[in-house]
Amino acid sequence: MTDAPTQPIFDRAAEAYDAYLVPAFFDEWAGEVTRRLGPQGDVVVDVGCGTGVLAPHLLGAGWQRVLGVDASGGMLARAALRAPGAAWVKGDAAALPVDDAQADAVTSNFALMFIPEPADALREMARIARPGAPIVVSTWGSLQDIPAFQAVCDALVDVGGESAADLVRRAFS
C-alpha cells in the first residue's frame, strides 16, 4: 500500500479523517462489513485499516484477535487510540506481514481504491486467509454514479486545479 505521493496526506489527515469522515461515511459500513463476515473466529486481519474503524465492531461481535495493517503511521496512531485491544502493524497491502493461511477472515473497508496495485492486495488477502475464510471488501463505485462527489471534484478543480481533485477522484477509481 506504499504510495509516496499520497502517504503524507493520510499521515497528516488522520485526525480530521476520524472527526469528520468516519461518522459521515465509514462507521455505518463497519457494522455491515462485520455482519457479512458471518460467524466469529479467532483472527481477522483488516487490510488498509486506516484509523481502525472496523476494530471495535469486530471485537464487539466476538472476534478474538484483530490485526490492522496500514501503510500510514498517522492512521495507525489513531487506530491504537480507538481500539487498544487490537494489534496495529505498519505494512504494505501488496506484501502483507502475515504468514500464509493465518486469518479466519480478512477485511478491507474503503481502502482498496487507494492501493496502487489492488490486484496484488487481493492476492495477498487470499494468501493470508485460511481455506474457506471469508474476505469482505467494501469500496465506492465509480465517480460518475455518485453525483454529489462529482460536484465536489468539480469544485476542487475550480478552486485548486486538476491536481487538487486527484485524491478524491482516486477514491472512486
Brief sketch in words of this structure:
The protein has 173 residues and is an alpha/beta fold.
Any overview of this molecule?
- With 173 residues, the protein is of the alpha/beta class.
- It is 48% helix and 14% strand.
- The chain has a 5-stranded parallel beta sheet, with helices on both faces.
- Helix 1 packs across helix 3 and helix 5 packs antiparallel against helix 6.
- It is globular.
- The chain starts with 6 loop residues before the first helix and ends with a helix.
- The model has no long low-confidence stretch (mean pLDDT 85).
Identify low-pLDDT runs. Answer: none
Number of helices: 6
What number is the mean pLDDT? 85
Q: Kindly name the structural category.
A: alpha/beta
Helix and strand succession?
Answer: HEHEHEEHEHH
Q: Give the C-alpha Rg.
A: 16 Å
Give the strand line-up of the largest sheet.
3-2-1-4-5
